[in-house]
Amino acid sequence: MATTTSQSTAPSNSTTAAAICFSKYLHSLSQTPHRLRRRMLATWTPDEELNQVRQRSGADMKRKLKWYDLVALGVGGMLGVGVFVTTGPVARQTAGPSVFISYIIAGISALLSSLCYAEFSVQIPVAGGAFSYLRLTFGEFVGYFAGANILMEYVLSNAAVARSFTEYLSSAFGENSSIWRVEVNGLVKGYDMLDFPAVALILLLTLCLCHSTKESSLLNLIMTVFHVVFFGFIIIAGFCNGTSKNLVKPQGIAPYGVTGVLDGAARVYFSYIGYDSASTMAEEIQNPLTSLPVGIIGSVVITSVLYCLMALSLCLMVPYNKITENVAFSNAFKEIGWEWASNVVGAGASLGIVASLLVAMLGQARYLCVIGRARLVPSWLAKVHPSTGTPLNATLFLGLCTASIALFTDLEIVIDMISIGTLLVFYLVANALVYRRYVIISKNPPFQTLLFLFLLSSSAIGFSMSLKFKRQRWGLPLFGVSTIIIISFFNYAVPCVRHHIGWSMPFMPWPAALSIFLNVSLMTTLKKFSFERFAIWSCFITLFYLLYGVHSTYQAEEMGSSDDEVNPSSAVQQTKLDNMQVL
To answer: What pTM, to 2 d.p., does this model score?
Structure first.
């Protein structure tokens, strides 16, 4: 009789609990305006980020990596992404033989952004990358907005790279990629070719990353060394067997004009997202004060040189109108009669794609882990496994998301959707560095710096719009000269104090200001589809913040909620030891 009573009351209790939770949630929603005022611009200090927030992962990530591991991670993460995935389509459709100039422009912009990242990573050596830098400078919402966008870029670019892996793997065996995929009638075109090899690769790397960061880094180091040698083979073969006539035939070196070169730079820019992955390893690197700048800046320089030489070798071997959009390098060797090299290139490119995927998936999990620490997403995504020292839940979750997109979505659709988020985040980081150096560190009034950033961005938009629409010839010199005047006047009128802890950006504000200018200019060249995707995603993540994020962080920070807090004394002691190494 008692058993029957207890069984009948159990559903009633659960229903009551659900009703109470729903009532509390409705009450929280009614307080949204008040909570937004409290949380949107809320910032943390670097010390709080390094100690209090990091404890929410339960266990610390293990510091096992050295500077050369970081260089290899950065190079491995970037090599294989752009040069094998985007060079063919951009050379054929957008830039022509001047695709190598597009890589130079994108490389300069990435180098300037990497300088901004390097200073932030030394001052705030946590795994959150741009999310942490922006949250500590501009507040919670800007950090969340940037972190959510860079996560989307990671997932989409990794899906694109995984599908490209199938293309090159089939080329290594001398087969067409269609036989490796399954066509499903009834699905929308562009989403009807199921790519199971891409899914298998992503799931395999996800399991590898769940096991250990150090072992994953060692695997990447071996593959990256081999990959650089392989790049050398392609470059030498291309220069020896190509001809400079292919650079000017059939319609000159820039058949699509200056606009095509800039459009190409914007499309290949996502190839440089790998150095951002290197910055997310800040909690796992030994001696971060010196290792982080070397790893981040060094990997960008090495990769930029290799990208430009690879693109140039491709255009030397084959006229741009004969470059194929898929497996461009393999088909280029077929054109010059090196059938055997075509298969070798397919195998080497597949290996390079594996290395770049490994690093990118490493970085995306750490982004999500730190966003989880801030309570902007469910806190279980922030947990670090105590034995492996890896963000297990975040790695598994994003691995499944990436695999789902790679299974259905065609490569061309994915490529058109990416780059805008990367450019936006790098633009925000450059703005944040200027604001941090001139307002937070130098103690200047914020109005001067904010006005400078607004005028600089406006001038960059005016310059790029004048170049894009070509309606007024006076627009280019007007906005170009005004940009130089704005930067020069700000440099003269507003004093800057340079901090003395670790590496810092020289010649401020010029490098950061030029980074802002280039990122804005490249963003304006992207297709309308990219901005539509960005608008939809922005609306979604803003809605998520309003319905979940702001209430979660308000309860954790303002009301002192500690349901998910894990702060064992051993972890505290370990964190203090790590921070002594950092400082």
So the answer is: 0.82
